[in-house]
Amino acid sequence: MRLFFLWFTLLFIFIGAMHFTALSLMDISPNTVFFWECYLGNYFLTLLLLFALLRAFERLSHSIAWIYLLASGLKFALFFLLLLPLFKADESVINVERFSFFVPYFSGLILETGALINKLNKL
Amino acid sequence: MEIPVMVGAGLVVIGVGMGIGRIGGSAMEAIARQPEAYGKIQTAMLIAAALIEGIGFAALFAV
Amino acid sequence: MNSYTTILQKIQKTTVLFALFFTSFSLANTKEETKSGDLKTEIKEYIAHHLQDAYDFSLFSYTNDKGEHVYIGAPLPIILWDNGLKVFSSSKFHHGESVAEVDGNYYAIYHNKIYKTDANGTISYDDEHHPTNAKPLDFSITKSVVSMMIVVLIMFLLFRNLAQSYQKNGGIATGVGRFFEPIVLYVRDDIARPNIGEKKYKKYMSFLLTVFFFIWFLNILGLTPLGVNVTGNIAVTFGLALLTFLITNLTGTKDYWLHIFDPLGSSMAWYAKVPLYIILIPIEVLGVFIKPFSLLIRLYANMQAGHIVLMSLIGLMFIFKSWLGSPLSFGLAFAISLIEVLVALLQAYIFTMLSALYFGFAAEEHEHH
């Protein structure tokens, strides 16, 4: 499973680098769209969720998918509560800000789902 | 109430009516052909009709 | 001789009930005629009022010779949480006509919700005409709650007695059990077994039977002149559907979840599955929520629509004030009432059936090769 975490980190860095390049090509400073907050927050939350999934796989193997659904919903709610006030601080939510949240969120989600399918098939 | 919404809801209800009518008719034919499978056909018919009915109610609540 | 008198007494009681029922309509009739100014809006308001929950269990009301509204019914307890528990009788509201004072706080009913007001019952509005008054947390025992408690009590006593009578008579149904035994067996043999499977159906039987009889009894109670509309209340059907949702997903096996998150299985390589799954998985996950949602909307809308149609047909009687209108309205209302008796059973059956179907999805286990 360590290999999986390694792959996950590498992929996240790769997507983040792409996003960063796109932003610098458009002449937008990453700080104004909360780039670092989104990526770091998403990375650590996804790590936490994956770790929880692995623990769940060992103990409550049948509720693993249920825990996954709850946890990813919770993750979204947490971001909604924490990040939306940040985005709204300058009175408007621009598309670049939305992208800086949804790109890491969905890459995290896809990776989580991949891990879940992998684990479910091994049950 | 805006007239286009009501016309749309009416169209949906026509569609739902035709759908449920077809289900009922087909179930009748099936029962006539195989009277011994009455119970199973009726169950399947009711489930399909209930699923279609939901769409009709969705349309009615949009009005 | 003794049994003959009891039968007579029973008939007398029934007649009194019927007389009460019909006088309620005739009284309503005289009331309509006195202020026939805007009859259609009044009927609409009456129907809307019937469909809602109420803070008191009133059977009917009329205006007496002095022009006062007289209500026949019982008040129910109101329980509020507003900086401490406040319990008082709903008779303090006088059917929403006056402000209730409890421990120095004032409450008023506006559009069937309790708001905190001042001594005059002033309600302030925002731009969209929504009240801006503070709303205390409401745990009141309303009309629907009372009806549900009655049904729960009936079910508890009935099925407890049935179970005991089976023990006494060596497994043979007697009395009312002869009516309920085929229904219970139908739920087991034609709803649970074919949909869930021989191995696992026992685990779900208690929920299926309870929900079937609960919905059926409440639907039938909604057709009586008591005027309760419990299964036509979206909060009640939401609660029932939530139970189905929780049971489905908490008892879901590995194969159920694999069907949602890996519907194509090992038939494809992972890189071919990725673009498909971006569309497929969200649809499947949405389906998990849509299934119980359709259950809740179906039951709610069917019962609500039935009540609206029935009440509108009765309302026609007051609009066509001719010798043709009343029999027509009565005949139509009678026919629709008979259909509603069927619908009451059908909706309970459909809810149980679809719940069993979803449990069947959750409990399925494929053969592993």
Automatic annotation (TrEMBL), chain B:
Coiled coil: none annotated. It comes from the Bacteria. The keyword Transport applies. Keywords: ATP synthesis, Cell membrane, CF(0), Hydrogen ion transport, Ion transport, Lipid-binding, Membrane, Transmembrane, Transmembrane helix, Transport. InterPro entries: ATP_synth_csu_bac/chlpt, ATP_synth_F0_csu, ATP_synth_F0_csu_DDCD_BS, ATP_synth_F0_csu_sf, ATPase_proteolipid_c-like_dom, F/V-ATP_Csub_sf. The keyword Transmembrane applies. The record marks 53 as: Reversibly protonated during proton transport. Residues 8-60 form the V-ATPase proteolipid subunit C-like domain. It is found in: Cell membrane; Membrane. It is a multi-pass membrane protein. The chain crosses the membrane at residues 6-23, 44-62. NCBIfam families: ATP_synt_c (TIGR01260). Belongs to the ATPase C chain family. Key component of the F(0) channel; it plays a direct role in translocation across the membrane. A homomeric c-ring of between 10-14 subunits forms the central stalk rotor element with the F(1) delta and epsilon subunits. This is ATP synthase subunit c. The lineage of its organism: Bacteria, Pseudomonadati, Bacteroidota, Flavobacteriia, Flavobacteriales.
